[in-house]
Every structure is written in C-alpha cells, then in structure tokens.
C-alpha cells in the first residue's frame, strides 16, 4: 500500500462521490495501483454516511469510519490517520476544493526529501472574515509554535508515514494538526496550486 487518502466528511452527501471519482482519475492517470481512500463521517447531519457506505460497497479501496458525534475536522482526520496503511498519507477536503489533479506537483516536492508538503493557493477564494481568521491563525502559529515565517498551508497536504505515526500518539480531544506536525518535523515543503 503506497497511498492513503484521508477525507473528513461533513455535509458532503452530494459532493463526496465526485471527490472519490477525482481521486480515482488521478490514481489511474499517475498509475498509482496501491491506494486506499479513508472517508470519515464526522457525525454529519445529512446522509453522508449512507453515501460512504454505498461508495465502500462499490469500491474495495474505500474504508468508511463513522464517528459517534461531531468532533471537528482535525479529530476526524486523526481518526482516519489511525486507520491508514500507506507510506504516503494525503489529506484533502470533502467539497472538491482540493485540486487533487495537482497531486503530482506535491509528490515531486515530497520526493525531493520533504517530510510534509502543503499545497497553497495564490488566490484564496474565501470570504473576508475567513481570510482574516486564516491570517490570525498563521501569526499565532508562528508566535506560539514556531511555525516557519514562510508557512503556506491548506487542508491539502501529503505526509510521510512516520509523521502520521507520531501525530496519532497525541491523546487529546482537540488536536491542532499544524502544531502536531511541527512537533515531529520542520522539514516542510510548499507547492502552489490552482
């Protein structure tokens, strides 16, 4: 097993199938034969769990995890990470906003020796209040966690197995993934995506 794609799912009953199709397209195009897709239902109020069950029944590479309550995106990712078997763990969103067709750009940077590679967007399509929140979170991460001054990240990234194994040792209800990544490594790369 080489790749594990981990996707936290919340209110994505109508989009998760498209995201899975996009992953399938990329794995076929890039000739990735060994992979798994871990879909984590973060106790979504829609029927995303029904969609996950249907997708898992249709595709042997899909694993579904159903959380008992809403724990939040980072905790849902942690649950997915605990179930992974791949050497490369790819995290992405459930709404189709992660440009999975640009995975090869992340992998090229990753294979240059990085432990984690984040995608970033030159033009972030967010409402003004969300951009301000992102800016504040980045500044706090730099000040409190020692995040690199040039840190550019998103929810679309690739990490090596050893990073994920260290991250999932964290035993707290409210994980902050960037903080956990920085506890393990500073060998981080960034790739601009559309």
Describe the secondary-structure layout:
Elements: E1 3-9, H1 16-29, E2 35-41, H2 48-58, E3 62-66, H3 73-82, E4 88-91, H4 103-110, E5 116-121, H5 128-145, E6 157-160, H6 161-167, H7 177-184, E7 188-193
Parallel strand pairs: 1-2, 1-4, 2-3, 5-7
Antiparallel strand pairs: 4-6, 5-6
Helix pairs in contact: 6-7
Describe the structure in your own words.
- Helices cover 39% and strands 20% of the residues.
- It has helices spanning 16-29, 48-58, 73-82, 103-110, 128-145, 161-167, 177-184, and strands at residues 3-9, 35-41, 62-66, 88-91, 116-121, 157-160, 188-193.
- Strands 3-2-1-4-6-5-7 form a seven-stranded mixed sheet, with helices on both faces.
- Helix 6 packs across helix 7.
